[in-house]
Amino acid sequence: MSWDLEIRDVSHEYRGNVALNDVSLSFGEGEFVTLLGPSGCGKTTLLRAIAGFLTPRRGRILLGGEEITGRSPDRRPVNMVFQRPTLFPHLNVADNIAFGLRVERRGKQEIARRVEDMLGLVDLADFGGRRAHELSGGQMQRVAMARALIKRPRVLLLDEPLSALDLKVRLQMEVELRRMHRETGATFVHVTHDQREALALSDRIALFDRGRLVEFAAPEEIYRRPNSAFAAQFVGDANVLPVDLVPAAFGMAVQLGEVRMPTPPDPAGGTRTDAGPAWLMVRPESIRVSPVGAGGTSGRLRGSVLDTAYRGDVFSCRLSVPGVPVPLKAEVPVEEGVLLDVGADVDLAWPPEAGRVLPLD
Ligand code: ATP
């Protein structure tokens, strides 16, 4: 893959407050990358540095092999869509979209043609004559997308563009964003703190924690094989349980509360072999819960139901397990979950490959 956008050793502080700490990552041409992480982890700072709204204290930013670190925003083939679209209220939709090309003094015919293309791209073909205040939130965000894309930027930066929309519109806009990305071929760099949205949209996710890049991989990779307890919990809210790795007859075993189990096989071959404390990750949907003695599970791990919440297709349960200081989260299909009353004793099990041993830090 050829790298389009490269971030090299970038650090930034605001008056002693570290926002980005030695971040390096490269985006492929036409890739859809999401910068994900909790509030304050530096996502917006990096996006603003790519846009040219701020120059990082250290490090370099390259686009197509050319350094753009200190270049002003209007001299980069980069455009940005913000959380709340700022449309010109006195202009109609078509004129809002055309604005950037008018500034460039393009010919009337070219502008008309490109505006029409953009209205089609964002699925607003019949809305060209509407005023901004006559649009819904989702439609305004589509106009903002069209206005940003009409200049054919090489990189489109998206700063939480869906977060102000209600859930139904947001889900629909996710599908639309993917389509716009496919149809334009631009590199999309998207910022969100919504892990579900990041999983749904991205070719790769760059996960940040307190100014540092902690993981950069495809959604399935981060979800199934996170490299840290932080990533396991932030993406998909996995169980991360304190365990001890103890020597056993064949390699190492995992001691969880009062139960000893084999170390999960690591597909990457990176299973730890040294004894001591570690984390064990298990996704809630991998845990099989059944009433004690109902069969189907080994019955080695026992727990009791702390609470359950009905989610339509599953019950989300929290379970207490002797010797384990945190509750286990499990998702139980509704047809099985009706049997699980609060306080009921249950057997728990998961396939060995669903577990993952992670380092303490
Ligand atoms: P959010 O999801 O809340 O927008 P973020 O991950 O985008 O957060 P940034 O906005 O990049 O995070 O902020 C990173 C750190 O820098 C935070 O600790 C923040 O308080 C600090 N920060 C951001 N902008 C400024 C500023 N203009 N002056 C001082 N500190 C700032």
From TrEMBL:
GO terms for molecular function: ATP binding. Pfam families: ABC_tran, TOBE_2. Keywords: ATP-binding, Nucleotide-binding, Transport. Residues 5-235 form the ABC transporter domain. SUPFAM superfamilies: MOP-like (SSF50331), P-loop containing nucleoside triphosphate hydrolases (SSF52540). It comes from the Bacteria. The keyword Transport applies. The keyword Endoplasmic reticulum does not apply. SMART domains: AAA (SM00382). This is ABC transporter ATP-binding protein.
